[in-house]
Design a protein that fits this description.
Blueprint: H1 3-9, E1 15-16, H2 19-28, E2 32-37, H3 49-60, E3 64-69, H4 91-108, E4 119-122, H5 124-127, H6 132-138, H7 145-149, H8 152-155, H9 164-167, H10 169-184, E5 186-192, H11 196-210, E6 221-225, E7 238-239, E8 242-243, H12 253-261, H13 265-275, H14 280-292, H15 298-311, H16 314-329, H17 337-343, E9 349-352, E10 357-358, H18 359-365, H19 372-380, E11 384-386, E12 389-390, E13 397-398, E14 408-413, E15 417-423
Parallel strand pairs: 2-3, 2-5, 3-4, 5-6, 9-15
Antiparallel strand pairs: 1-6, 7-8, 10-13, 11-12, 11-14, 14-15
Helix pairs in contact: 10-11, 12-15, 12-16, 13-14, 13-15, 15-16, 16-17, 18-19
């Protein structure tokens, strides 16, 4: 199965320019393709994963991906898919974000490996050195205002207003495609469907500035992937805690694993096709699991395993599974302090000193029980657990033996109410 056929079968192609020509181009050449990632934060999030996996699929099919970090365009802001202007960051902030994204992309694609090794580029290399006069003469002259106004990314903003800064973004991205075509022989740009206007504008710039229409041997192409929607109508990639990041310091591997594990039955097969590198035969078997035994959540577990391993590592996956199993069973003894912190990152917490204190007093101080009378009842009724172990001794003093690596104690009241006591 060739790359385009595979993408089609997975539902991953929204739009292509000259599909027949692109198919022939891919069959006859080792194609260089690129996708841009603007540094709007110090980490990629799972909204970026789909274009990253597309680059990787092309790489595994023998083609050469270019991960373009927008150190230059990130100073401007892409209006695509937005109703308001972006806030502008300083040069230093954007550079820091760009460096962080480059490092993450290097962990997801194969750099410096073989003839089709991935390449990282930063458009600040050419955009920051281009004078305004050269930009207007060499790029701006190829685009009419009417042409730009007709693009969705601009047209959708006209009513509420768009600055000249963001209006110009399309030209900057077009210049990216031209530079990568000239310097890397890059002939394909991919992106989300909201990037269609920017992609076709880049193709237009290449044609006009290089007069490709008179040379049938040389062509450039564009391909977009669908924007991801969820069956329940909520936005993909958002949780109660905010965005799901690829940086383990911002979203722990355990949280990342749990995000995929909680996928709706109506979405899980689509996400397996979109994001994983499982074969169509393997996914067909998981379809049967969803249809015959959805309560086992076999497909969700496989999705969570594949994605955690891809973004983080096999070790991180094993850790996430270990945390999940320990929390489900209530047995926290085998977890490290770091694993406990991942699993209980969002539970209510209170700080106290390290001096031993009666459990009854601690329950009231931490507002786990509303009063000493209620605390006594909770303990006697077996509703209080310290680090997963039930405590029914009214005279119990919480001390060093109850602390995990001397840092904290996890208190559970009832079946699901967890609290973290931190020691200063």
């Amino acid at each position: 199965m060739d790359i385009l056929e595979d993408l089609k079968k997975r539902g991953l192609i929204q739009q292509t320019t000259d599909e027949e020509g692109l198919e022939k181009h891919l069959q006859e050449n080792r194609v260089k393709l690129y996708c841009g990632f603007d540094p709007t934060a110090d980490s990629l999030h799972i909204g970026h994963l789909l274009p990253v996996t597309i680059l990787k699929r092309f790489q595994e099919a023998g083609h050469s991906p270019i991960a373009l970090v927008g150190g230059g365009t990130g100073m401007i802001g892409d209006p695509s898919g937005r109703s308001t202007e972006r806030s502008l960051n300083t040069t230093e902030v954007v550079k820091g974000f760009a460096d962080a994204l480059k490092g993450q992309l290097a962990g997801l694609l194969k750099f410096d490996e073989g003839e089709n090794a991935a390449v990282a580029r930063n458009n600040a290399d050419w955009l920051t050195g281009t004078s305004i006069i050269d930009f207007l003469r060499d790029t701006g002259k190829h685009f009419s205002i009417n042409y730009m106004l007709a693009k969705d990314s601009v047209a959708s903003r006209i009513e509420n207003g768009i600055s000249f800064t963001e209006f110009s973004y399309m030209l900057l991205q077009s210049l990216d495609f031209l530079r990568l075509y000239e310097e890397e022989n890059c002939t394909l740009q991919i992106g989300g469907s909201d990037q269609w206007g920017n992609i076709t504008a880049g193709m237009e710039l290449i044609r006009r500035s290089r007069d490709l229409e008179s040379n049938a041997e040389v062509k450039v192409f564009g391909l977009t992937v669908p924007l991801i929607t969820k069956a329940d109508g909520t936005k993909f990639g958002k949780t109660a805690g905010g965005a799901v990041w690829l940086d383990p310091k911002k979203t722990s591997p355990y949280e990342f694993y749990q995000f995929w594990l909680n996928t709706d039955d109506r979405d899980v097969i689509k996400f397996l096709n979109y994001f994983t590198f499982l074969s169509h035969e393997e996914i067909a078997e998981l379809v049967k699991e969803v249809e015959t035994a959805p309560e086992k959540r076999v497909a969700q577990k496989r999705l969570a395993e594949e994605m955690t391993k891809f973004v983080h590592s096999e070790e991180a996956l094993n850790q996430a599974i270990r945390i999940s199993e320990s929390l489900f069973s209530g047995n926290l003894k085998e977890l490290t302090a770091d694993e406990i912190m991942q699993g209980f990152k969002d539970v209510p917490s209170v700080e106290t000193d390290k001096s031993p204190k009666p459990l009854i007093d601690l329950l009231v101080e931490a507002k786990i029980s509303p009063s000493k009378r209620q605390a006594r009842e909770d303990i006697q009724n077996g509703a209080i657990y310290l680090n997963g172990e039930r405590v029914q001794d009214l005279q119990h003093e919480v001390g060093e033996a109850d602390r995990i690596e001397g840092k904290f104690t996890i208190v559970r009241r009832g079946k699901k109410k967890y609290f973290m006591v931190k020691y200063s």
